[in-house]
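Researcher: Let's run the pair from yesterday's discussion. Sequence first, then tokens, for each.
Model: Starting with the first of the pair.
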Amino acid sequence: MTESKSLLSSASSGDTAAMYLLGWEFFIGGTNSEDKNQAFRWFYMAASQGHIGAQYMLGWIYYFGYGTPRDERQFMYWFCTASSNGHIVAKSSLDTIRRYRWVR
């Protein structure tokens, strides 16, 4: 419990790594729509501030509509952003997506 409070405090203070980890806590432990919304919120905040892991994860969240409406344009935006910032898995995934035209 203390660890989660510390993580929340750090995330609330602007620590993008803490935001990313908090997003994962809600994502993995998410059992209801509020947890999904919180996962989206924390990943979005970290991604918007340049955390490339959060940018990649946010792409998937938009693709599957986890805590937010499904949006292929946002999926591609965040995957491209993560890829251009050096996320190797995002780059590889984009290459595959483009090769097989999985996204319009």
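Model: Moving on to the second of the pair.
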Amino acid sequence: MEPIEWNGIMGRKYETRIVKLTDQELRRQLTELEMTYNMTSADFLQRYNRGELGDDQMFIRWSGLLRTASKAGLPKPIHA
């Protein structure tokens, strides 16, 4: 990929993928992550923000789903 300049900062251009989720699908994915990792989203977020969980791709995704849910004004997942 070619370096690009954006606001005076050199970087690389990356493609991003925008995925649209329904409220129901967002909740389903959060619940699935909670069950897979045997922790609530609230516990996950505390541990993730403290750096206890590392930067596993699935944890990054989980964090992003929680930000999306928060921005959408959705209530916290049932298991939180």
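Researcher: Give me one sentence on the second I can quote.
Model: The mean pLDDT is 78.
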